[in-house]
Amino acid sequence: MINTISTGPRGPKPPTRFKPHLICRAVTTALWLLALPSLPTLAATATKSGEDATNQSSRERDRILLKRNPIASEYQLLEAPGDVYGATFDAEGVDFRAHFSMPTGRADTESMRLEGNLNYQQYAEEVVPGGSLNLGKSFGALTLQFSAQRNASERNVDLYQARWLAMSEPTLSDNEVFLLGFPRYSQDTFDTTSINTSWRADYQLQEDMLLTYEGLSVNYDDLATRNRLEFQHGVGTLSDLQLASDGSTISSASIDNSRIRRYFHETKTARDINRHRLGFSLDQDKGSTEVGAYYSRWRNSSAWLPWNFFDRGLAASYNIEDRYLPESNVSELDLFDVSGATFANYRPSYTTTTDTDYALLLDWDRKITLSGNDIWLGAGVAWRNKTRDNSNETRVYNATDDQFTLDQLTGNNQAETIIDGQYPLPVGMDTALGEGYFSANREQQFGIDLGQSFLESTQNLYTSEETVTSAYFNAYQQLSRWFWRAGLRLEKTKTDTRGAISGPPEAEIWAQGEPITELEIEGVQVAETFDSFDAAFVEGHNSYQHLLPSMELRYKLSSDLRVKVAYFEQLMRPQYFDTVRYRRINPPMRTVSEGSPDLEPTSIQNYYAGLDYQYADNGQLSAGLYYNKVENFFYDSVTTEPLDGVIYDVSRVENGKDGYIQGLQAYWRQGFSLPAISSANLQLAYIYSDSEANLQDRKIWMPERAEHRLALNLTLADEYWQYASQFSWQSKALDDVGQSAAQDTIREAVLSWDQSFTWKFDKRWSTKLSVSNLLNHPDRSYQGEKSRVVNNLYSGSTARLSVIFNY
Question: Which SUPFAM superfamilies match (predicted)?
Answer without folding.
Answer: Porins
